Amino acid sequence: xxxxxxxxxxxxxxxxxxxxxxxxxxxxxxxxxxxxxxxxxxxxxxxxxxxxxxxxxxxxxxxxxxxxxxxxxxxxxxxxxxxxxxxxxxxxxxxxxxxxxxxxxxxxxxxxxxxxxxxxxxxxxxxxxxxxxxxxxxxxxxxxxxxxxxxxxxxxxxxxxxxxxxxxxxxxxxxxxxxxxxxxxxxxxxxxxxxxxxxxxxxxxxxxxxxxxxxxxxxxxxxxxxxxxxxxxxxxxxxxxxxxxxxxxxxxxxxxxxxxxxxxxxxxxxxxxxxxxxxxxxxxxxxxxxxxxxxxxxxxxxxxxxxxxxxxxxxxxxxxxxxxxxxxxxxxxxxxxxxxxxxxxxxxxxxxxxxxxxxxxxxxxxxxxxxxxxxxxxxxxxxxxxxxxxxxxxxxxxxxxxxxxxxxxxxxxxxxxxxxxxxxx
Length: 425
Fold this sequence. Notes:
- The chain is α/β, with parallel strands linked by helices.
- It folds into two domains: 35-169, 3-Layer(aba) Sandwich (Rossmann fold), CATH 3.40.50; 172-406, P-loop containing nucleotide triphosphate hydrolases (Rossmann fold).
- It contains 17 helices and 13 strands.
- The protein is globular and about 70 Å long.
């Protein structure tokens, strides 16, 4: 954004950040002013119009909160503020509710420094608007509502770290790791029903990978039959070829496939990191989302899933032991993928003898992202019948809706248009 006389029809060159003062993820010194010619310049400033958008920014940019200021208000508030303040290195501005967002962005250009990275949040999902603001108004990125933590981390995170997103690195299906704080907390129940809901709501191709090679329950809960060959592929990646999925993937409906094994208890499977990586590579080529049911705790080889995961869920119960183990699991997972992609899932909330919500929040240091109520009748009956509980439990469907929206980027209650999906990379 170059001059005060600039009009909406003029081409605005892309803004570049000088190397001086660029900080890396996780460093606390990003909160300090950046000495690049403007005194007291802050690293990042966001203007948002609603609580949901603010929560998504805080979750997706958790490691940068020390250098990010978030204020309530839209683009007019941003323009007015920058008339009197130095421009931040990264500016995030919400244009929702603006009658003339293009004109408002043009006015913002008059007061915003040319080297600022400008990220815009809005409700419009038409390609012409996207092209206009990114090609002709110098906007670096556009994020459509409803925001998800993952989309914020993927698109805005690199700018916060002083770089631009690597588009090619995100190609292929998303890996979602579901890990329990301990056995018996309902990890498989969450993985199975989440995979089913994502496939139904998005109409995308979804794979459910059960890494419990002995005694796994994912296939049984869906009334599916474990295929042969998964153990071999996980132990010897050279055996996993293009025909691998045809041999091991069992269809559940037209959009969900289950990849599981049923090894005898006396067997001693030894998955290798290379084998797990190879299997996930094959799955990412064929499926939009891959939900992985991880053993608790995952072995060193199984932790390879975390290195490839876009999202990680820690499932825990409302008891002291589970709460303690949940914190350990969160630390382990965060070390692999960062805090912005890890979500805590409280299962069986308010069951008889459960800890109160206040104590759970105190133990976690905040609210769990997802709370699933205790369903003592629906879940056991569904498991015995091999019929997903999601089919008969509206309470479970509602509880999983935030996870489905976060992973898919589609408003579960309202669905999503094709163009909207294109924007929600």
